[in-house]
Amino acid sequence: METMKFKTNINCGACLKRVTPSLDGTNGIKHWEVDLDNPDKILTVDSEGASADDITNAIKKVGFEIEPA
């Protein structure tokens, strides 16, 4: 399993609700969470096959910004 971290602009519970279906529906993501207390809103993903591009695309398709942390 690989752990990846990304800076995002996911900053509230409503934002989490918007990204949840996209991330949960991405094959190869074992677990994910966003640290809303961190100023960079760090998304941590435990991947079992999902690439950084897969995760980036899942976030961008619901309208959020994402970049490697």
TrEMBL record:
PROSITE patterns: HMA_2. InterPro entries: HMA_dom (IPR006121), HMA_dom_sf (IPR036163). Pfam families: HMA (PF00403). Residues 1-67 form the HMA domain. GO terms for molecular function: metal ion binding. This is Heavy-metal-associated domain-containing protein. It comes from Fulvivirga sediminis.
